[in-house]
Amino acid sequence: MAVNHIKLDKSKKGWWKSAVFYQVYPKSFQDSNHDGIGDLQGIISRLDYLDQLGIDGIWMSPMLQSPQVDNGYDISDYQAVDSMFGSMADMEQLIAEAKKRGISIILDLVLNHTSDQHRWFLEAKKDKSNPYHDYYVWRDGSPEQLPNDMRAAFGGPAWTYVPELGQYYFHQFAVQQPDLNWDNPAVRRELYDMIRFWVNKGIEGFRLDVIDQIAKNPDLGVTGNGPRLHEFLRELSAEGFQEEYLATVGEAWGADVERAKLYSAPDCSELSMVFQFQHICLDQQPGKDKWDLAPLSLPALKKCMAHWQNGLEGQGWNSLFLNNHDLPRIVSRWGNNQDHRLESAKLLGALFHGMQGTPFIYQGEELGMTNVKLPIEEYEDLETVNLYKERLAQGYNPADIMESIYARSRDNARTMMQWSGETYAGFSDVEPWFIINPNYTEINAEKALADENSVFYFYQKLIALRKQLPVIRDGSFTLLCPDDEQIFAYIREDSNSQLLVAGNFGATGIVIPEEIQKQSAFLEGELILSNYRKREYKEDSEAAKDSVMLEPYEVRYYYWKK
Ligand code: NOJ
User: Fold this and answer.
1) CA 57/CA 360 separation, integer angstroms
2) N or C, which end of the chain is more exposed by having fewer CB within 10 Å?
3) What is residue 535's predicted lDDT score, i.e. its pLDDT?
4) pTM surpassing 0.85?
5) Is the pLDDT of residue 540 over 60?
6) 252 Cβ inside 6 Å of ligand 1
7) Are 2 and 397 in contact (CB under 8 A)?
8) Tell me: the pLDDT tens digits for 368-397?
9) Atom 2 in ligand 1: residue holding the nearest Cα
10) Which regions of 329-455 does DSSP assign to beta strands (E)?
11) Is 209 in the pocket of ligand 1 (CB under 6 A)?
12) What is the chain's mean pLDDT, rounded?
């Protein structure tokens, strides 16, 4: 099937259901002004590349004014571009240039907290009667007596003492990220006005950082899913988003299917969709955190995805993702970046892009970029650095801590985008702010574009297929062989077609089970996608489209028009 790019009509309600988004982490994407830090002009210079891939929108991690304690997730002015990334004029140019190519810009809204350098917080800590004091969450205490023993996500207590006030402020993340008090209507109004500012600039959607944590209640020890959460979201939607054409996606680690039905209700009363993380957490020890590694159970992953697919059908909307700036590279995590990097990167992409929902690709995923291993001194991410110190103090063995860091550090995703085999990988002409994965001479965009067998062109096909085959957007989902330890297969079906997706999650070949072989799509359908080229060229009988042998990490799409 030929790759045929279809541009979406963004004035149509629910256009984002047909869209594919691409996440850019601005600091690591492309430098244009020779300071080793990615910037807005850098993104503009790569829009044609993104257009070639076929994406419909870019989610940009924050590029607003920030002291950069948490790489921009600590915002000190919501309405100013950080000078490190460029100017407001650059931002306007980016929005306009992207729009010309049918690409929407989706801004990252960090509404749960600000930077401690935000004007509101600087005022808030002056005295208790300051009008901004109540913009944040304070409790009385003394240096010896914390309000309670809640912990922050990046280590240490969730409370920091301000001696002049005799009070603690609450922060779910770093000390420099004080939590906003959403119970205060003035805070909410400020945020809605700020959102309107960006919508008026041409922003076509938002990703909402840790949105399930805004309605916290520290007195009850509650962080996620607070009692007023959905009330706040409905107000946010009515006041801030208004237009039906905005694409909004909330980051919600605490979301289950039932809650996601509220978040992504078809009447758009809250958001378009959420990022849920149940699948992402399957390879960690139950009840422990992400650093406590456990092997992935394929049946568990399949059942989890089927639960979401079936659970939200007609009642909400899924996002589909395997990577982001907080997660390790999926090909190193669930794929095989040793002997089958290309095949396994494509397999993972095909399995997720065949489902119902809106896919999000993270920069470099379309190249099959991999994790890194660094000495501890070279890690930049504060979560990683704090984890190391904390676990060391708790008596963990340094080698074990490093194993967890190699597997899970957020810095795996934050190495520079690999554009070419030149010095500094075509990212910059000076040494970048953080490392470049040494494999950049092998894995880079220039090589991928010159190789028709690359992960890039495979993703290009996946994106095009979603637009060409309505069954991918609208069809029902039926999981096949749920308990099989190696095969991941499912059927998508609508009234006039069927799509069979079948993949081998293992490094050894395997015979396709009966349950799959008897599907009409397998018997009658056309093989429209495969990550083994011999299938397309039908070199020999083994390579035939109906071969019952799936090669290591092989994936196939069969499409049957009834
Ligand atoms: C989630 C973001 O994705 C992450 O990068 C950030 O550190 C935290 N929220 C805090 O804003």
Assistant:
1) 9
2) C
3) 77
4) yes
5) no
6) no
7) no
8) 999 999 999 999 999 999 999 999 999 999
9) 209
10) 358-362
11) yes
12) 96
Cβ(326) to ligand 1 under 6 A? yes
Question: Tell me: the pLDDT tens digits for 29-68?
Answer: 999 999 999 999 999 999 999 999 999 999 999 999 999 9
- Residue 220: which residues within 8 A CB-CB, separation 6 or more? none
CA-based R_g, the chain, Å: 24
CA distance 88 to 201: 10
> How many other C-beta atoms are found inside a 10 Å radius of the C-beta of residue 338?
10
Ordered strands of the 555-561 beta sheet: 476-480, 487-494, 497-504, 555-561, 526-530
Q: For residue range 105-137, what is the model confidence (pLDDT) as tens digits?
A: 999 999 999 999 999 999 999 999 999 999 999
Query: For residue 13, how far is its CA from the centre of ligand 1 (angstroms)?
Result: 29
Strand partners, 488: 503
> Ligand 1, from 25, 73, 214, 410: best to mutate by most atoms within 8 Å of Cβ?
73
Name the residue among 21, 149, 9 with its Cα closest to residue 463.
Answer: 21
Q: Shortest CA distance to 52 belongs to which of 393, 445, 476, 514?
A: 445
Residue 549 has which token pair?
């042998």
**Which of 228, 234, 318 shows the shortest CA–CA distance to 270?**
234
CB 26 within 8 A of CB 84: no
Give, for ligand 1, the residue of 76, 110, 386 to mutate: max count of ligand atoms closer than 8 Å to Cβ: 110
Model confidence band, residue 4 (pLDDT cutoffs 50, 70, 90)? confident
Ligand 1 site, residue 381, Cβ cutoff 6 A: no
- Distance, in Å, from the CA atom of 27 to the CA atom of 77, rounded to the nearest integer, reads 18
The protein residue whose alpha carbon is closest to atom 8 in ligand 1 is 73
Mean pLDDT confidence for 279-294:
96
Q: How many residues does the chain have?
A: 562
Given a contact cutoff of 8 angstroms between Cβ atoms, the answer to whether 312 and 264 are in contact is yes
